[in-house]
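Write out this protein's structure.
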Amino acid sequence: MDVSGVSQPLDEAQAHALLSDMAKACGATTLRIETHHFGAGHGLTAVALLAESHISLHEWPEYRFVAFDIFVCGAADPEPAIELVRSRFPQAHVAARVIDRESQE
């Protein structure tokens, strides 16, 4: 999911809370969340390790852009997390694509 036109950079606490809320929205179990800030004005990366896989966030504040990847399996569903991001960034453009990687046997 690509979010462009983000009004303000995220701080580590906001990124942590957002990934936690996204995992809950998916119906996933959060094991741990790690963040790494690249310094003032240089954005951050955050990853939520889930029992069902992971969700990552990469921010480029100089471009007002945030990219998300949501990987889940089992009963977890990424669609509610996509809607959550749309609601958290109401003035931004959110482009989301869902790829079903269900195994074909």
